[in-house]
Each structure stands twice: as structure tokens, then as C-alpha cells.
Amino acid sequence: MTDSLENFRRTHYSKEVKPEMKDQEVVLMGWIHEMRDLGGIIFVLLRDRDGVTQVTAPSKKISPELFEELKKLKKESVIAVKGRVQESGKAPGGVEIIPAELKLLSESKLPLPLDTTGNVHAEIDTRLDSRFIDLRKHNVSAIFKIKSRMLHSVRNFLESEDYTEVNTPKLVASATEGGTELFPITYFEREAFLGQSPQLYKQMMMASGFDKVYEIAPIFRAEEHDTLRHLNEVISIDVETAFTDHLDAMDILEKMVVNAITEVKNNCQDALETLEFNLQIPETPFPRIEYDEMVEMVNTAGVPMKHGEDMSRAAEKAMGDIMDGYYFITEWPTAIKPFYVMPNPENPVKSCAFDLMYKDLEISSGAMRVHNHDMLLNKLKEKGLNPDSFSRYLAAFEYGMPPHAGWGVGAERFTMTMTGLKNIRETVLFPRDRRRLTP
Amino acid sequence: MTDSLENFRRTHYSKEVKPEMKDQEVVLMGWIHEMRDLGGIIFVLLRDRDGVTQVTAPSKKISPELFEELKKLKKESVIAVKGRVQESGKAPGGVEIIPAELKLLSESKLPLPLDTTGNVHAEIDTRLDSRFIDLRKHNVSAIFKIKSRMLHSVRNFLESEDYTEVNTPKLVASATEGGTELFPITYFEREAFLGQSPQLYKQMMMASGFDKVYEIAPIFRAEEHDTLRHLNEVISIDVETAFTDHLDAMDILEKMVVNAITEVKNNCQDALETLEFNLQIPETPFPRIEYDEMVEMVNTAGVPMKHGEDMSRAAEKAMGDIMDGYYFITEWPTAIKPFYVMPNPENPVKSCAFDLMYKDLEISSGAMRVHNHDMLLNKLKEKGLNPDSFSRYLAAFEYGMPPHAGWGVGAERFTMTMTGLKNIRETVLFPRDRRRLTP
């Protein structure tokens, strides 16, 4: 078996090998992207994380043993090549490697379950079944480079704004919003659920004196949706801030969005180019449209919508046709928002809730919260929820709870806005939906 | 109701108010830590995230209405105070605030379920039941400031080492290691499980060309343990690196640990002082003790242990008595490590697995992995596991899988080493164990 790494270590990634490095010895490692055997000369395109380098093996310049080894190589096998850099006008990056040593680290079976050259179209389900191969395509890995950078920049921004990261439990005893969209778990002899949102926990943290908290973690929703915008497990970016209101929350959300987009634009140029997506840094402040105004706009666009209703998909699409980028919808009816949303003190039929939209896609929901215990208890009851199920949560409002506001952003939907992708499955390594639980 | 924030906003935190700010108008917000009403003068200690400031209200200097409002305040209520800074030799931080305006934002019920002054001892269960009050104590919040900083520095370190953050699913169709320590979920009409580790996913990512990945996310183990070192939901810091072996993995782990400790020591001085913990930056390289040598040390210490056995708690304690800080245990018997651990090629009875210990506490397990498909299949079968349950995972080893190595660090245990705490429950905001599912 020739699959041992031994003392071979990569010295460079493909994109780091430059013509200036002429005659330098390098060790490259990666997958065999393409092979051409012209008899007296073999060309191997070696692909690694960020690029491709040509290994050029003329039979006259290398040992017969090495030439034979190269001849036997198969597509998508993993190799390590030690060799010298040579300038080449024709090869990618203007360089080629003349090999001196080769290690076959892992041989690929053929045929592949999925094409890696990007020339053959594959359905999303076929791609997800063999996700590890799908991700070898640079236009797929680009999505996750952008998502990773986005998450990193969100965290750095929130830390710079003095937020503390918290980890709240995903195993919970009762529902956040009393909904039926929960996955039940057997927790030893008891029934428990998977957290559909850290909402109640981040609110309890507001009574702890932490003031500014964030969490980036999975949430789980047992929704039976089968759309391009829903999954049953996603990453939620959750923020809660004490001693502030919904207007402050919108400001920090807006800043976070612009900062993340700017960071992605500045740091993921290659990935954006690979995706052929022209990422625009949005202007601030984002337009703020009151709910009533939105209903008028939707109706004017020919989509029937009554005041007091939630947005239908058709209404979202109508707004998406009118609005080009990010915008807030504010002043939502209290009746269609969760119990913990603060009613507008001057007109309690309206609420201090907002949604952040990108075209026709809801990116975030947020609000100022009810912080008065008795009002919260009444609102729970009004929604038909059992206060006993919320006793630990309600207790946090009895011993000094500051006013607070916050929001949650769907990391995958946010990634969709930065990549131009239309199917949320594209933005998750191993998506979970109604039908898919593997790989 | 007087609970509205209106246009009041905090201008400073307690610790930011300095004697140099004499006569400056400030707005502080927080909880009433203590009250003293001496008749003609009222002292209010206002506590916020990082400190305490004295509000001094002499009846002669403030309006009668404000004096009456102050008189009525109760401990742990939430207030906002606008006032002027005055120097004071006796008050904390050398300053006091002479109030001009007061807002009662949230009134606390009395008596409190938990003392906040730190003078009354409470059992951990009582504290966890009212965690939101427990966290108001600066010696409790200090733990989570350290944990948050640790996580932040781990991420920054890994990003600086060119690692990409990944999010792998927590809803899985089969067990990672075939164990019985899984929480079952009802996933629509199917059975699924909660991920006990991202092991199989981070390995599949090695076949994708991402090369260096990390994930910081919850893991779930249905262990019936009732110890000071186990919980059923914890945060795991997972790293996997392609084209490297276990020695490389140990190096990166060691660097990550030292970097995180250094960052915590440099940025969390107040928190460490509050905890009265003298955090030491460990010297590198950490001692590396082979398994066989460890067995001898344990036996010499009077604790019986046979070669080939896993460490008992008594064995861990014996090692903890001998070793003062961090150390690796290497060359573990292949037979007691999971199927995906690479056997030592020169002596397959031993493996390329390591544990990182801190005194008597296991902080991390890691290894070079098997990357050869047929060897992996055989090892699965040897462990009595059904290869059909692992078909999607095994497929990733058939089409070019580079050699790789990695580890997982328990974020809570790592936090224990940075705080001197002995009960893992202290390091989790809302812990989950055999008995506890709330709050």
C-alpha cells in the first residue's frame, strides 16, 4: 500500500506557486482533476482547495519508474507530488511542476458518482447524495467560504460592539412559542424537545445583567414545508440587548448586515467571481416600510392582502418585485406576532416588531420584548398558552427585568443574499428537510 | 407604569465612571445591589455588568419628589439614573452620582429566591433553578466572560491558521460510534438521533478538499453519568486536518490551548481576580507520556490497572496527583479506541490516538484516522458495527480520501482548567444532566 503520508508535507497550495519560484522544489497535494497521456509526456492537473496546478512529466526528463507510476494514476485519486517549478505560458497560473517524487495517497474508484469538472449538470439531490464530491467543485466550495467568512465577520462585529457569546441549551422541556413545530426527543424517562429558537433563553439572560448577548447555533423546526427557503435544521444568529428598544435593535442589525457584506466583498473576491455574483454593499439606512403601507403596496401590485394578515408567498414576491435590496417592515399587527412582542404603547394594536427583508426573502425577525411580568402573563394567556409550561421563564420577569430588544437572522438565508442562490439547500453542507436525513 | 425606557440610554457602565469626570452628567442603568436609607440621605448601590456605583441622594440636594421615589425602591429592581459625577473617597471607584432623574424600569418581588450579595451559600441546584439571579453575582458572570473569550480566541486562532468553519448536522440517521449513548428523535415518520459528535461529518469534509475545518457546536450524549465532569449536552470544539498525521494534530492542539490561555489571561484579568484563580500559561511542548508508561505510573501510585484497559477514574486521579498541568497520553491500544482510529503501521496493536489531559481531567481526544476504505470497512466489522449504517460515510473513502487527523476539545472542561472550577455545571449557563432539563 502506498497510502502513507510519511514525512511528506505540503509546502504550497496551487495558487501560491508563482513563476518567480522557478527551479524551487515544492510539494503539492491534492486530487487528480484531469489526466492527459500523450505517450511521451503525461500532464496531470492537480486540484487543491483553491486552485489547479499542472504537473508535466516528459518521459525524457523523469525516471522510468516515476513515469510508469504516473501513467497508472486515475482521476480524483489523491496524490502528493514533489518537484521543481518551471515557467509555462500555457499552464494555469503560468507554471508547471516537473515531478521528482510521487505518492499515491488514496486511489479513487471509477466511474465517479458525480462529475467534478462542472461540465455535466446534476440535480441537487444527486449532488447532495455525494456531497463530498460535489464540494470539490470550486463553484460549490465558494459558497461555504463565503458562509464561513460571513459568520466570522458577524462574530467579530458583535464582539467589537461589546456582545458576549452565550451557549443556550438545545434540549428543552417546553416549546418556545407553544407551536406544534417541535421535534420530540426521548430524554431518559421524560419527553423533551429540540429548541426551535433560543428566544426564551436569551431573554432570561437579560435578567442576568449580561446586557448584550449573542449566539450562533443550530435551531430545529419540524415544519413540513417543502420550499426553496425552509429547512428543518438551520443556523440562527441570535442577538438580544438590554436597556434598548426595537429601533436600537434595527440599527445594530443594519450595521451587522453591512459589515458582513463588506467583509465578504473584501475577503472573498475569488469565491464571488467563481459564483459570478456581483455583491453590492447596501446603502444605509435601509428603507423602513410600515406594515399598513406594505399591505397597500402588495394590493396595488395586484396581490390581494387584508390588513391584519401575515404575508403570503405571493405578497412576499410582490414586495420583492418592488424592493431591490434590504428593507425593514415595521409596525406589525400585535395579533399576528408572538406573545413576547411588545405592543406599541401609543397604539397597542400595532407592535414593536420588525422583519428584515431582502427582496422577497425574510432574513430576520425582531422586536422590542415585553419586560413587564404581568403583561407577559396576560399575553401568554391571550395566545392560549399554559403559563405553567413557562414558569421558569416567567420567573425571570419577576425580580428585575430590564427593557430589551433583539432579533434572529437565518444564517443560510443571509448567505443566499450574498451568493445569489435561490435554493437554501445550496447553502448547507448536509441539509435536513422533510425527505433528507443523510448523509 | 413607570417601566418605559423612552429616550433614556445608558451613557456609561459603572467601571467607566472615573473621578476625572467630576460634574459630568451620566446615565447609569442596572440593578439595585444594596440600599441604605439614613433618613436625610439615601445610598443606592447600582450594579451593572462589570461593577457597582454608589448613587448618593442627600434630601437637601435633590427634589422632594425624587427623594420619595428613591425611598420606595426595592433591592434588585432595575433602574436608570441620570445624575452628576462627584468625587468620593469612600464610595467604590472613588465616585458617586448625585441623582437628578430616576426611572424605575422593573420592580423586583421580594424576598429573592437567591441571595445576590455572595454572603449566603447556596447549593448548585438552588442556584441553577434561579440561574438568571445567580448570574448577577460577579463571581458567576466571570466564568462566562472567560468561556466567551476562550471561544472567541479559539476561533480567531483557527482562522489565522487557515481553518474554515463548518456547520454539520445535529440531526443524524445513525450513530457515530455505534454506541447506545444516543438520544432518539422522532423525525417526521422516521427515527433519527441527536449527533454525539461531528466525527463522521468532519471526516467526510476531508474528502471534499476543504483540508482544514473546525466546528464549535453542541453535542448530545445520553450517558447516565452523574459526575462532576459529564453533562448530556456540551459544546465541542472540533478540528480536522487533511494531509497531516496525529503528531501534527497534537501540535496544533497544543498551540490552540496556549493561545487561548494567553488570551484569557491578557483579557480577563478582572474575571480571573474575581474567581481568585491564578491562571498559568503552560510551557510547551506539553509532556507526552506513552500509554504503557502511564499504566506503570498508575500502578506505581498504588492504583491497579492492567495493560489494555481504559483509564478508570482512580487512574485519572493518580495521574492528576503526579502531573501538574497539561500532558498528552499517546500510543493507546488500538482495541480500546474507536474504529476510525489509525493503528500504528509499525505495531498495529498500538494506535495513532492521543488524549490531552489537564491533571486528572481529559480535555481532548484525537487521532490520525484510517483513510483507506478497505481497512476502515474491516475495522467497522471488527467492532461489530453494521457497514450498511455507515454507507454514506464509507462512500467518502472510495473516491480519493487524503490522510487526515483531528481532535475534539470539550469547551466546558477546557473552561474548568481556566477557572479552577471542579463542577462542570458551573461552566454551563443552563446545564442538562440526568435530572435537569429546566430552566
From TrEMBL, chains A, B:
GO cellular component assignments: aminoacyl-tRNA synthetase multienzyme complex; cytosol
Spans annotated as Aspartate: 199-202
Domain Aminoacyl-transfer RNA synthetases class-II family profile: start-end pairs: 144-439
Site note Important for tRNA non-discrimination, residues: 92
Binding site for ATP: 221-223, 229-231, 362, 410-413
Swiss-Prot/TrEMBL keywords: Aminoacyl-tRNA synthetase, ATP-binding, Cytoplasm, Ligase, Magnesium, Metal-binding, Nucleotide-binding, Protein biosynthesis
Principal localisation: cytoplasm
Subcellular location: Cytoplasm
UniProt-recorded name of the protein: Aspartate--tRNA(Asp/Asn) ligase
Species for this entry: Methanobacterium spitsbergense
Lineage, broadest ranks: Archaea, Methanobacteriati, Methanobacteriota, Methanomada group, Methanobacteria
